[in-house]
TrEMBL record:
The modification N6-(pyridoxal phosphate)lysine is found at K265. NCBIfam families: bioA, PRK05964.1. The record marks F16 as: Participates in the substrate recognition with KAPA and in a stacking interaction with the adenine ring of SAM. Pyridoxal 5'-phosphate binds at G111, S112, D236, H300, S301. It comes from Spirosoma arboris. The gene is bioA. Pathway: Cofactor biosynthesis; biotin biosynthesis; 7,8-diaminononanoate from 8-amino-7-oxononanoate (SAM route): step 1/1. Its cofactor is pyridoxal 5'-phosphate. This is Adenosylmethionine-8-amino-7-oxononanoate aminotransferase.
């Protein structure tokens, strides 16, 4: 059995995949820039940054060099009672680019866990103050990850159904999309009480829930309402962080800054698994005590892995270069020009864009109703044309690496235009 796909099928269980009906997986053997190369010599344009993580293209030589150097210096060390240079440098540098009210960095190793830690910090903050609060407010259709706490604060769906009995209760606010602001504000006025420990949001763009977008001004108002009752605010920037929205963080669009921020995905430029939860001094201070029971008892074997921290430092060097910042603006502009053209098609609805993120809903044409499998139709149509995109139901979106060229974007836009003319 030399065929990689066959060997895979014999031993591997893939994420979010019904293994009985799943198509044969595509074997990728190499990547460069925005292109993935398959075992059968096909090229795929990675227009979703491989599950939204890859900021600077695949196998970036600078990140590769930095990680390989680090590998020969120190690959890992326990992070309780010990520290190491890359973890400290990364924390220092993150704090220079995050909202100024953030003052401490807690490491973990993925986005779900970065959310779990934020929730545990919030609950224990109130516990340590001797004023326990139990409620959490979240947005409908939110996605914060697949571990239990992260699932609990996400919207309930087919994905969470088997686990619902085990998830703690959360109060949901409708997403304040254009036109819904007043309704949401009224609901918020009743939900935010002094029992609410935390309000958790994906700021400005809800990712997995369908790339739903809303304005900073309404989020500022909701944050103000939450604050009036002392609730902590958690910004889950796992997807929106590191330039995706056109600014370094979605929180940079806001006047009211979150108390806690969760980061992962783009953190290492898509190279290694790493998560970070950041918090204000006030939250950190609530855990300082002679009483050992006020400690945050949370940690992972690979906390602050030096290779992952090095990848994050290298990715940050690249991200902050003028050239990359210009690319982010260039892609945003290309997206916005394409969005204007897309508006002409009756099979396209609710076009939305924030920075390098462009999304719209597909609506099947009248003659042919593919609605039930419009997702698969779109996915395969684009894949056949060497473009990797992964629609969320009928929502098609682009979240390309920042090195994607105008030619690559133009080719993608052209194929999307053909798709929306076909369905
Ligand atoms: C992907 C995602 C997560 C979960 O991150 P994982 O690394 O996949 O566990 C959490 N929140 C948001 C907003 C995400 O997009």
């Amino acid at each position: 059995m030399n065929n990689l796909a066959e060997r895979d099928r014999a031993v591997i269980w893939h994420p979010f995949t019904q293994m009985q009906t799943a198509p044969v997986p595509i074997s990728i053997v190499r990547g460069q820039g925005s292109v993935l190369y398959s075992a059968d010599d096909r090229e795929y344009l990675d227009m979703i940054s491989s599950w939204w993580v890859n900021l600077h293209g695949h196998a970036h030589p600078y990140i590769a060099q930095r990680v390989s150097e680090q590998l020969q210096i120190l690959e890992h060390v326990i992070f309780a009672d010990f520290t190491h240079p890359t973890a400290v440098e990364l924390a220092e540098r993150l704090l220079t680019i995050l909202p100024q009210n953030q003052s401490k960095i807690f490491y973990s190793d993925n986005g779900s866990t970065a959310v779990e830690v934020a929730l545990k910090m919030a609950f224990q903050y109130w516990h340590n103050l001797g004023k326990p609060r139990r409620k959490v407010v979240a947005f409908e259709n939110a996605y914060h990850g697949d571990t239990f706490g992260a699932m609990a604060v996400g919207g309930r769906s087919a994905f969470t159904a088997p686990f619902v009995p085990f998830l703690f209760d959360v109060e949901y606010l409708p997403v304040p999309v254009a036109g819904q602001e007043e309704v949401v504000l009224q609901r918020a006025a009743t939900l935010f009480t002094d029992e609410v420990a935390a309000f958790i949001v994906e700021p400005l763009v809800q990712g997995a829930g369908g790339m739903t977008m809303y304005e900073p001004s309404i989020l500022d108002k909701l944050f103000q309402l939450a604050r009036q009752n002392g609730s902590l605010i958690i910004a889950d920037e796992v997807m929106t962080g590191f330039g995706r929205t056109g600014r370094l963080f979605a929180s940079d669009y806001l006047q009211e800054k979150p108390d806690l921020i969760s980061l992962s995905k783009g953190l290492t430029g898509g190279t290694m698994a790493l998560g970070v939860t950041t918090c204000t001094q006030a939250i950190y201070d609530a855990f300082l005590s002679d009483d050992k029971f006020k400690t945050l008892f949370h940690g992972h074997s690979f906390t602050a892995n030096p290779l992952a921290c090095t990848a994050a430092l290298a990715s940050m060097d690249l991200l902050l270069m003028d050239e990359t910042q210009a690319s982010i603006q260039r892609i945003s502009q290309q997206h916005s020009d394409f969005a204007n053209q897309l508006a002409a098609y009756s099979t396209v609805e609710t076009i939305r864009q924030r920075g390098t993120l462009l999304a719209f809903d597909l609506k099947a044409g009248e003659q042919r109703s593919y609605f039930n499998n419009i997702r698969d139709t779109a996915y395969n149509f684009l894949l056949d044309r060497n473009i990797l995109m992964r629609p969320l139901g009928n929502v098609l979106y682009l979240i390309p690496p920042y090195c994607t060229t105008n030619e690559q974007l133009a080719y993608t836009y052209e194929q999307i235009t053909k798709l929306v003319q076909t369905i």
